[in-house]
Every structure is written in structure tokens, then in C-alpha cells.
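[recover] target loaded
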């Protein structure tokens, strides 16, 4: 599967960072925002009293990961806008390959909120289009309970479902998510990403087109 990661670094570090990623790959998530994910054990969907203790057990080590998008526009948004600071002011785009087993959906800016506060009549069509039919297996169960922990746990299961991941990777709808984020697809990809899987790393000269949101998160909520 092909992914794009957008990050920002100080201008003086840009050339060195590009060279290091090309040579070593992505080994660490020691950036401004550290990302991890944990794949729950199989067979939890039908557990009657599913809880966060099942999907986020305290005795496991989470896997370091990096955020990435399934398309260049999404990575460009993060590199040119979302991750920009006075210090980290130079965008870098990384194009790489990863196996499906390394990938989970990054649901923090959209999917978890829809599971917790979504209005089913408004949200079903969107979820089907952006995450595939299979995601409704999890979302419908979430909406049937008032237990927010269980709703989150069901979303924990959905973001690791290979069918849901692949459907989201193919999504063409532009999503307007939390904190004014704009993306078609968002993922966390387990580290390391070896140099042999890096397809390109570059400092873009100009920003690619910023798409307008087709669907805004606020319009999917109760």
C-alpha cells in the first residue's frame, strides 16, 4: 500500500533530514507528536460486555507508529499547514510503501467522534463511502449503546479491520475533521519503515491544491 507523510522541520535541517530518511528510512517517531497503536486480539466483536480494558489493556506495549495519508493532498496539508510552527517551517513529503499488517486508521479527527456522537441517519452514508460497508458492523453496535467506553472500544476494533482499512485507503471524499483538518484518509503506520520501502522524499517547492471538504464532521453529529 502506498502512503504519504507530511512533516515540517527547521529550514537548516531540511536537507539533512531528507538525506537521513532516504538512507535509513523512518526508524523513530521522535517528532513533536508521538504516535502509537495497539492491535486488539481477535474475536472481541461479539463480546457482550466489550470495554476499553479489552481493546486497550494496561499490560501490553503499544507499537510506535507514524501518521500518514493515502494521498499526496492530505500529506501536503499537514506539511504546509497543520504541522507548521515558527521553528518547524519547512515542509517535507515522504512517499513510502507499507504492508497492510502495519496499518491502522487514525480515527482521532473523525471516526471516533462519529462513533461516540454521530447521528446514525446522517452518518451511515458517509461511513459507507469513506470507510466501506464493513465499518457499519462496528458503528451500528456503537450507536445501540449509551456506554461511551464501549463505543470507543468498538471503534478500536474497526480501525484495525483490514477490510475497513483498505476501503478508507481508497476513499475519495474530502473530510473536514476536528481542529480544521482536511484529508481523504488518515492512518497510523507501524515503525520501522525501512529505507527499501521509501519511494521518495522531497522538499516541495509549492503547495499542491488544497481540496474543499465534501463532508464536515459537524454535519454528521447529533
Amino acid at each position: 500500500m502506498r502512503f504519504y507523510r507530511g512533516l515540517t522541520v527547521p529550514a537548516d535541517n531540511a536537507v539533512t533530514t531528507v538525506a537521513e530518511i532516504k538512507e535509513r528510512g523512518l526508524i523513530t517517531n521522535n517528532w513533536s507528536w508521538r504516535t502509537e497503536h495497539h492491535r486488539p486480539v481477535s474475536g472481541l466483536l461479539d463480546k457482550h460486555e466489550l470495554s476499553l480494558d479489552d481493546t486497550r489493556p494496561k499490560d501490553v506495549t503499544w507499537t510506535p507508529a507514524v501518521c500518514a495519508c493515502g494521498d499526496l493532498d492530505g500529506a501536503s496539508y499537514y506539511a504546509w499547514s497543520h504541522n507548521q510552527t515558527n521553528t518547524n517551517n519547512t515542509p517535507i513529503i515522504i512517499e513510502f510503501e507499507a504492508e497492510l499488517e502495519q496499518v491502522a486508521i487514525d480515527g482521532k479527527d473523525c471516526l471516533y467522534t462519529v462513533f461516540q456522537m454521530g447521528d446514525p441517519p446522517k452518518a451511515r452514508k458517509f461511513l459507507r463511502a469513506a470507510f466501506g460497508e464493513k465499518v457499519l458492523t462496528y458503528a451500528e453496535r456503537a450507536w445501540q449503546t449509551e456506554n461511551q467506553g464501549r463505543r470507543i472500544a468498538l471503534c478500536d476494533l474497526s480501525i484495525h479491520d483490514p477490510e475497513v482499512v483498505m476501503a478508507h485507503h481508497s476513499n475519495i471524499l474530502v473530510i473536514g475533521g476536528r481542529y480544521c483538518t482536511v484529508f481523504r484518509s488518515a492512518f497510523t503506520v507501524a515503525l520501522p519503515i525501512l529505507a527499501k520501502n521509501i519511494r521518495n522524499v522531497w522538499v516541495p517547492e509549492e503547495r499542491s491544491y488544497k481540496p474543499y471538504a465534501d463532508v464536515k464532521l459537524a454535519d454528521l453529529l447529533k
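[recover] notes: The first strand starts at residue 2 and ends at 9.
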